[in-house]
Each structure stands twice: as structure tokens, then as C-alpha cells.
Amino acid sequence: MKLTTCNRRPGGNALQCYQCIPGPSGTCTDTQVDCPSQCGSATGATYMSGQKTSAINKKFCATPKQCISGSFNLGLMKSIVSSKCCNTNLCNNHTVQELPSTGPNGKKCFTCVGDDCSQTLNCEGDEDQCVETKVNTGGQKITMKGCTSSIICFAHLLGQPGPTGERVTCCAGDLCNNVKSINQNMFLLVVSVVSKILYH
User: Fold this and answer.
1) Which of 6, 12, 13, 133 is the residue whose CA sits 20 to 30 A from 127?
2) Domain limits of the chain?
3) Which SMART domains match (predicted)?
4) Alpha helices, H only, 29-180
5) CA neighbours within 13 Å on the CB side: how many for 190?
6) Considering the entire predicted model, what is its pTM?
7) Which fold has domain 104-199?
8) In the predicted model, what is the mean pLDDT of residues 53-79?
């Protein structure tokens, strides 16, 4: 789990990167573009009930907030993103491999099945935070809960949109994503994530 940072290139010289942003067909062609500081490649996949329903590969001019790898698991739906950033000309010429599927890691969080948010979910891989978010469906906001990687939470705190496009609240500790525990654990989340970024 990494967050890569990089300053603007010396002398203000533009960095050449490949760009490939898939359209509705899901495909694209590499083009060369000038970027301020970093090139990026990313692979994303969405699973519904354990079955892959979509996958995307893209190349782009990257910012540090986009150089993340992790997962966002709401039980019935799980999204995985794996990205790599680099800072030499045309360095993003490879497709990033999807993060490997791993089993439960021992952590548990609440998840929602319909209106029932008292169900528990076994977190997987590096999903070390519990999460709560709201999504707009048919003009109504629906609460969704589950597990996520702390780097996803940290990117959201830095201003990157959450995986659902809405406000995302994360917390540390088993089953902490209930109404009483979210705010109490927010400070612990920030301390934990900042420590990982600075010292690991």
C-alpha cells in the first residue's frame, strides 16, 4: 500500500507520458502528452457477488492522490484499484496488474443489506478500515457500509472523490462503522494513516 509523491521536474521541463482514457467501448489508443510531474497507469475492477462485472485500464498524467492501490468493499459490491506512478519520459508503457484476490484478514465491519445495516462483513487483504458512505439512488440517499484500505480513506481526506462519489467516513477498529463509533475513531484513522505514509 503506497502513496507516491513527486515534485515538479527541474527547470519546468514537461514530462512525456502515455495517455489512454477508455471511452464507452472500454478501449483506447495510446497517445503521447506532456505532463507536469508524473505519469500514471491504473487498473480497476468491480465485482458484484464475487463476479467481475467491469474492468478498466488507463494511462494518464498523474497527481500524488491518484497513485494509490487498494479496495473498497461493501459486501455485495467490491471495487479494486491498482496504480503505479513514475517520473521519466514514457515510463507508463505497461498495464498495471490487478491486485491479487486474498482471503479474510480477521477484521470485521458492519455492512448493509437493503435497509439492514447490522450485518457483518469479513474484510479482505489490506482492508484495514471500516467505512460508511451514502449514494444517491432514485433521488434518495442510501447508506452503505463495509471495509476499505486506509490509503483509499487518506486519498479521500486529501480531496480525491470517494469511490461512490459521495462523502466517505472511515474508522479504525472492528465493527466501528456504526453511528456512535464513527466520530470517535476518526482521529485514530488520521494518526494511523499519516504514520504509515511517513514511516513505512
Assistant:
1) 6
2) 10-86, 104-199
3) LU (SM00134)
4) 150-157
5) 8
6) 0.73
7) CD59 (2.10.60)
8) 90
Q: Is pLDDT of 83 > 80?
A: yes
The amino acid at residue 83 is S
CA 178 to CA 190: how far, in whole Å? 18
- Assign residue 26 a region (left: φ > 0; alpha: ψ between -120 and 50; beta: otherwise): left
Q: Taken in order 35, 38, 39, 42, is the CA torsion positive or negative?
A: negative
Q: Which residue has the cell 478498466?
A: 56
For range 172-196, the mean pLDDT = 54
Phi, psi for 173 (deg, rounded to 5): 100, 150
The per-residue b/e assignment along 157-171, b for 16 or more CB within 10 angstroms, e otherwise, is beebebbbeeebbbb
Q: In terms of pLDDT, which residue wins out, 111 or 153?
A: 111
Torsion angles phi and psi, residue 169, rounded to 5: -115, 125
User: How far is the C-alpha of 51 from the C-alpha of 199, rounded, in Å?
Assistant: 36
